[in-house]
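User:
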Amino acid sequence: MRITRELLHRIAEDTVKERAAKDKSIVAAYLHGSVWDGPNPVFGGTADIDLVFIHDKFDLQREIIRLTEDVTLDIEHHAKETYQPPKDLRQRPRLGYTVFGCKPLYDPDHFFDFTQASVRGLFHNYENVMARCRELLDRGRATWLFFHNRPYEFGPEQVATYLQAVEDAVNAVVCLSSAPLAERRFLIDFVNHCEKIGKFQLYVDLIKLLGGMNLADEQQSFGVQSKEELKGWMLDWEENFTKLNELYEIIPKLHTHRRAYYMRAYEEMIKGDQPEAVLWPMLHTWTQMAQTMPSQSEKWETFCERLGLVGSAFEARLDDLDAYLDKVEILLEEWEVEGV
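Assistant: Predicted structure:
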């Protein structure tokens, strides 16, 4: 099947129409993500259709529905109260940007129309831009302080917390001019962002934060040997992904229907000019797997050792994170001065 943006839009519209006819608790629904406003919704031959249903009352939080091997529906369910008061969403980094840029597909009582109009008003005002960026930066700094002020024990929770701080720091930079980064294309889109604002070193430093330089060659590049190593880790990731779906109750994003969604993207990144881009989605999702099945995550632990996220090497990563957060803070201060 040939996957086009028009086809994906039609599937989204048909899904919303069908659900709204059956479920009277639905107040509104909208389409967001790469299918709506990304440069190319298809990556590695696969695509994810991101929908949100807003309800008066609901039971489900998130669903992953397989349409074909290459296309899945990723449906989130939100309470109506989540969007109140609308003007406060202007200062919320992820949900604010989502509401600002999404496409409403169902809104019979104009609830979402009013909400979106309120969010879009003054959304790019410097006060709101800085509030979004500062929230992310402050969260990242709070996590660094958490690690700095007490002993820590290696495990999935520690790595997940560290990665959240890294993600917050990166998105504090990105939210100066665009929406927070999506998981699969996290590093691909960030390098483009850094080049656009003339801060390429922030990308290089990010690869260091993830331990990527441990996989690079003597010239600090990712050549044939690095690609082969990444392929090996990718297969170990897939083995754990299979085990997770066979033996455990999983979070929706790691449902077996998303195997192709991740694996084909990994393969495309590794064979391309930016193989290190696979590090973020693979490490991020693998850590979430390890949180679910910590007793069967030996290969994930070995991967973390290779990246320097264990023991004294992790202390060095924390020092790097401290320096990175300082750089982001300086960038925000410079941006605030320019915005006056």
